[in-house]
MFS transporter
Amino acid sequence: MEEGMLAQVRKFGGDQKRFLASQMITSTYNNLISGVLMTGLLLYIGVRPSRIGVFLSIPLLANILQLAIGKMWNWFYNYKKMINCIVLAARFGILSIVGIPILFRDSGQPVKIWMTAMILTVSYTFASSAGIHLNLWMVQTIPAEKQGTFFAFRDRMVVGVTMLISFGAAYLIDQLKVANLEYIGFATAFLIASLLVVIDYTILRKISYERNEEKKERLEWPLYWKVVKEDRRFLRFLIYMLVLSLGMNLANPYYNTYMLDCLELKYTHIMCLTGLQVCVQIAVSSIWGKIANRIRWSRILNATVFILGVQFFIWAMVTKESIGFIYVIFISSGLISTGLVTGQFMVQYEFIGHQNTMIYLSLCACVTALGGFSGSMLGSGIISAFADKVYQLGGIGIGSMQINMIISGSILLVSVFYAKIVLNRNTERSYYVG
């Protein structure tokens, strides 16, 4: 590992190092309960392939619903305790769906599916509400000049650990699936995730928390409208996030389903591809740290979204006969992953105002979620509408999921040009974290 990055991390303060450890654990947890393993569990519970994306987008729906419970934070005085407790309870709620096949084994598929949807919706709604406060707490703890190193180091450490755990779980599931016992593999993965939740809770309790004036702001509905009406620059940013999230979630929740259901790849094969992506991501993570310390997150995000849009066009060419294209996708994903994920998280802080910070962040989360959930629903509709149709393009059969990916890529490229033309009119930050 590059000595320069390690030397910078050693200079972090105690709370900054604790947040770094917390973020590494949280990212590992999130990676473990999302993606191909969550897709596999949902398919096992009985969710139809065309509806998988809707379920995977429930966290986005939760970001909309969190506005409805946002006022509950006006009742709390000990923010640190409530953030930790709500995050802990919400994460265990999400993990509890692994018990549905056992607890409701005598019930019909509709009951299992609706229970899964309700549990995930409630859990993710509270996780989203607390997560906004947790993220602001973290960003205010990490100075702006250290954020590039912070996120690059986090991602470098996380991808390796996540890969080992995920690959082990995938291999276990593939072996058990032969004997129709793959549920044991899902339960093992979620048990590991529950241990990570407890460890993260313990670390967060040791991080100091200052409840400054920004935390005392009251979340009132008229303030949301006032911010949108008066801050035109932020309004343009919200439109960008709406289009970007719509484009990403039109196809993004379905590519694991495409690999499992259409390409018929095994979990182990998918994890090997992910391993290739991880190796590339680790190799370039230090480069992203240097880039992020010098270039705005909005520019980084725009560049990586352009590549992502091109990727979705390549996805459309991946069939059983042209499986080689999939390597191009996973390698390029490794190249842009750190910049894309961190850019999505950090870009909002370039456009929010000095006052009413939580109002800005809540609005951004809500609008992004609205675009994302609408995208997943639209994607589900497109896949269902073209389910029985296959078009020939250059000798490659283009089915419903590939059509969805082409549309998704097109919208992402539109968002890139919108950002370049509209958002770059004013490049000054409204709120500089640091």
Observations:
- The two ends are 27 Å apart (CA to CA).
